Amino acid sequence: MAPVRLPSDAELPLLRARVSDLADRALVVGDPGRAARVAERLDDVRQLTANREYHVYAGSYRGVPVTIASHGVGAAGAAVCFEELARGGVTRIIRSGTAGGIQPEVVDGAIVVATGAVRAEGVSHQLVPSDFPAIATPDLTIALREAAGRTGLDVHTGIVLTGDMFYPSDVITGIDHQLWQRAGVVAVEMEAAALFVIASLNGIESGAVFAIDGNPLAAKNDSMDGYDPYREIVTQAVDGALTTALDVLVS
Q1: Residue 148, domain extent
Q2: Which end of the chain is more exposed for a tag (fewer CB within 10 A), N or C?
């Protein structure tokens, strides 16, 4: 079945943006506040909509029209954003967010560029069979790695783990981070697999770059005790990841 494309005068049901206001390139982030901060980097910027967790901005970066959109926390809600952007004619989506390191050397303040994602979330399994891979666009991945290298930060490239759970439970073990560490997964986050699958289904480009704000395997009992994503070292990595994403978005 061919991907759905909406007419230019249509309004996206949940993003609430008009298709004609969207650029063909979009940077997506989880936090609406972060979307607003990214929008400050644009020229001729205007906020298109603010509905639920979905805040959408239009502007230009280095002379190229871009869209900025927030998608909230978790793959299911983010999938709505990704699908509606694709239906609205966006042909390149790059996600920039935070993630937890899995490998010992992937620590606070580093940047991770995702080559693909483990589909340990729920929404993609309702779109395609479990054997279907969640893979970023190779050319974008290479460009993101090169751009990230220019930030001067510690950069890692590899497969990330996308999961639905943020706070672990004492009842069920949940995600086995040590297993995925042995498999070579570099970081864990909550939305990339949905982006890569939806982009593949819609025939568009996708990529993802993350700022590392901690390492769950370094925490006691694999818990979130002491987690603090607002430290200066994390802020610097977030800025570096956003700059990387914007540079590649318009390249």
Answers
A1: 19-249
A2: N
* Catalytically annotated residue among 154, 213, 225, 228: 213
Can you tell me which residue has the tokens 């900025």? 68
User: Looking at the domain assignment, is residue 8 inside a domain?
Assistant: no
What's the pLDDT band for 55 if we cut at 50, 70, 90?
A: very high
Number of folded domains in the chain? 1
Alpha-helical segments (H) within 65-176: 75-87, 138-149
Helix (H) or strand (E) holding 242: helix 232-249
Beta pairing class for 64-70 and 155-163: unpaired
Query: What is the per-residue pLDDT across 74-95, written as a single tens digit (0 to 9) for each?
Result: 999 999 999 999 999 999 999 9
Report in angstroms the alpha-carbon separations of 204 from 40, 137, 197, 248: 26, 9, 10, 15
Query: pTM score, two decimals?
Result: 0.95
Active-site residue 247, yes or no?
Answer: no
Res. 168 pLDDT band, cuts 50 70 90? confident
